[in-house]
Design brief:
Order of helices and strands of chain A: HHHHHHHHHH
Distance between the termini of chain A: 73 Å
CATH architecture of the largest domain in chain A: Orthogonal Bundle
Structural class of chain A: mainly alpha
Number of domains of chain A: 2
Largest sheet of chain A: none
Shape of chain A: elongated
Oligomer: homodimer
Radius of gyration of chain A: 20 Å
CATH topology of the largest domain in chain A: Tetracycline Repressor, domain 2
Chain lengths: 210, 210
DNA sequence: CTCTTGATGGTATGTTTGTACCATAAAAGA
DNA sequence: TCTTTTATGGTACAAACATACCATCAAGAG
């Protein structure tokens, strides 16, 4: 047998090249050739490790989903321990706002995949679509915990607030991606809304009408 | 001279065909041929009325922006007159939630263009990017009017609330587009948040901390 | 009646794409 | 030493694409 190469490392290298190329030229402009050039390998090698372009794209999407999950968990962990629900929620939602270049790349390509998944049947049933559903349940639980701890108004509808937060986070992230807003601006707006949802220890500061 | 055809009508017909094809197969899959087939004309005709593919895509984007502006104005008008700021804001923001098939098509293709504009220099400086900026100013004015009328808390930061509303609307609309949520669900969440912002005639029901 | 001109169809062309095929170096096992 | 297998390069090929070119039909102008 020859050199015996670590396949997973090679695949990761090629996938990273694809992500760079997609972030620079757009996902639609990604070709086998451009990925090969970006990765500094021959087209034949890309074929060798991913056989077909469709599988390369699928593998990239999978890695994207895994990495974003990791990033979210890292943020929660970085928020310290024990962490108040409010800080956990903030950490999770702020991950959707692209700040560093890696984050920007991830969200841009991820969004391109999401739009693609509406019309592409091969992408429609992909696991990355489960993320928002899981995230919603997670946020509901955190909100409920905050309510029990007296950090959030107990009259709030946790589910509706969770859906709202998810929408805010996605909408702000998208606007930053489209260069309509700075990341700092988006962060400030998100924090502003969180401050309203979590007024602190004071109970029932805000009495809803219904 | 021969038949003498209404060019604008022909162009609109071809653009509509492109929109249908893009909503069905994805904007990336749109070709001169597919547009021609969808419109029921020859490829040569598409060339004749739009010369190049890039110009066809640009014309489609322009029409999209115009039509969406019209739809928003129609909604505001349909809300009756005189209209309370709260109802105007609701009408404007709900337009971002795709309900009927036309609306879904518009938002899907529009989103595809938006993602494309990040990497495509020809699309980056297009007028459709101005819309969010204008919309933000419009919302700020409406919120300020509501505050003066006593329909909204005068302590609210109108600008931050406007940015937040825009993000909510975009985020909810996107989630409906991606089939993560129903349009009814998104509408309910948006209304729920509006009810918090516009508690009605009661002043200072909700006292912010800062 | 001719001639010009707008509207249309068909086809050719050069380029790019994904992929299949052929070849080879090299290292491990026989 | 001689396979056998893994990793790699180069190239060939059919399909699809945007676009340029050539041809034609028909209706109003002269």
């Amino acid at each position: 047998m020859p050199k015996l190469v670590d396949h997973e490392e090679r695949r990761a290298h090629i996938i990273d090249a694809l992500l760079r190329a997609a972030a620079r030229d757009g996902l639609h402009a990604v070709t086998m050739r451009s990925v090969a050039v970006e990765a500094g390998v021959s087209v034949r090698l890309v074929q060798y490790y991913f056989d077909t372009k469709e599988q390369l794209l699928l593998a990239t999407l999978e890695r994207l989903a895994v990495r974003m999950g990791e990033r979210v968990r890292d943020r929660v962990r970085a928020a310290g321990s024990p962490t108040a629900p409010r800080d956990i929620v903030e950490a999770v939602l702020l991950e959707a706002v692209p700040t560093d270049e890696e984050s920007r790349t991830f969200h841009l390509v991820y969004t391109a995949y999401a739009v693609l998944s509406v019309t592409d049947p091969a992408l429609a049933g992909q696991p990355f679509l489960k993320a928002p559903g899981e995230m919603e349940d997670f946020l509901i639980a955190q909100l409920a915990a905050a309510q029990r701890a007296g950090d959030a108004d107990p009259h709030l509808d946790a589910r509706q607030e969770a859906v709202l937060l998810l929408a805010v986070s996605a909408g702000l992230g998208l606007s930053v991606l489209l260069n309509q807003r700075t990341a700092d601006d988006a962060t400030a707006v998100l924090r502003h809304h969180l401050a309203r949802l979590f007024p602190g220890g004071v109970k029932s500061l805000c009495t809803p009408l219904g």
